[in-house]
From TrEMBL:
GO terms for biological process, alphabetical: alanyl-tRNA aminoacylation
Organism ancestry: Bacteria, Pseudomonadati, Pseudomonadota, Gammaproteobacteria, Lysobacterales
Keyword set includes Secreted: no
Record domain Alanyl-transfer RNA synthetases family profile: where: 1-230
The name this protein goes by in its record: Alanine--tRNA ligase
Length: 239
């Protein structure tokens, strides 16, 4: 079993681990701070540090569909690491922190728009959600003002959990129309923005909305008869 340390502490930037196995797919560790691509959030990058001081770049992180293990892709030309090898993990923190800020901002956006979410993704500079908005009028300036007020309120962000059966009995918590959370799972992770939003999510988030920083709705596009795409941009590098 891998310990997914980012679930316990999204702010953890360094950690120690040991190699479980290393093959053509990549590197599997007994513990990792690197978040794997998922839920619209890109996989983390960073470095491994070997005992002799050598540094190996981690260029991507994904979850293997067959084993569900988190696999880190390493830069080409590095050494093959045998099971049991101790390594230090160093996260590209500025990039991850921007992901955390944008991901939390998208949760605020989903709370601000009273419509089902049909898709979305994010980078460390921007993000977007698609809504089944129908005839709902969406104005960029109005949405920006609502988001800025939510951010300025500096509301706490909590990680909670619920059983799949409990979530099935509360379908209003599920905002995404295209992808369903694992309703058969014994535990489903929830992200709560106090007094604002509560929904299933496996991504990494900031601890308070004030940490998101200045953001705006950059554009709203029609993507079909009912679908509206709302894009967010950072206005500054942030905290």
């Amino acid at each position: 079993m891998q310990r997914e340390l980012f679930n316990d502490d999204a702010y953890l930037r360094q950690a120690a681990a040991r190699v479980l196995h290393h093959d053509e797919r990549g590197l599997v560790l007994d513990a990792t701070i690197f978040y794997p691509t998922g839920g619209g959030q890109p996989g983390d990058i960073g470095h491994l540090v070997l005992e002799d001081g050598r540094r190996i770049e981690v260029t991507d992180t994904r979850r293997d569909r067959g084993t569900h293990q988190i696999v880190s892709t390493l830069t080409s030309g590095g050494p093959w690491l045998v099971p049991g090898t101790p390594v230090g993990l160093e996260l590209d923190w500025p990039r991850r922190h921007r992901h955390m800020r944008m991901h939390t901002a998208l949760h605020l956006l989903s709370a601000a728009v009273p419509a089902g979410v049909t898709g979305g993704n994010l980078t460390d500079r921007s993000g977007r959600l698609d809504f089944d908005a129908g005839a709902l009028r969406l104005d960029p300036a109005e949405l920006t003002a609502r988001l800025q007020a939510m951010i300025a309120a500096d509301r706490p962000v909590h990680v909670r959990s619920i059983s799949g059966d409990e979530l099935r009995a509360q379908p209003e918590l599920i905002r995404t129309m295209s992808v369903s959370p694992p309703l058969d799972a014994p535990i489903v992770r929830l992200i709560e923005i106090e007094g604002t939003d509560l929904q299933p999510c496996g991504g990494t988030h900031v601890a308070r909305t004030g940490e998101i920083g200045a953001i705006r709705v950059g554009r709203i596009e029609n993507k079909g008869a009912r679908n509206r795409r709302v894009a967010l941009d950072f206005l500054e590098d942030g905290p």
